[in-house]
Amino acid sequence: METKHYVDYIVEETKKILAIDSPSGFTKDVAAYVMQAYKELGYEPQLTVKGGVLVALGGKDKDNAVMLEAHIDTLGAMVSEIKANGRLKVTPIGGMNANNAEAENCRVHARFGDVFEGTLQLVDASIHVNGDYNNKKRTFDETEIVLDEKVHSKEDVEKLGIMVGDFVCFDPRTVVTKTGYIKSRFLDDKLSVGILLGYAKYLKEEHITPERMVYQHITVYEEVGHGGAASIPAGVTEVISVDMGCVGEGLACEETQVSICAKDSRGPYHYDVVTGLIAAAKKAKVDFAVDVYPYYGSDADVALTAGYDVRHGLIGAGVYASHGYERSHVDGVKNTFELLKAYIGS
Question: Is 206 an annotated catalytic residue?
Answer without folding.
Answer: no
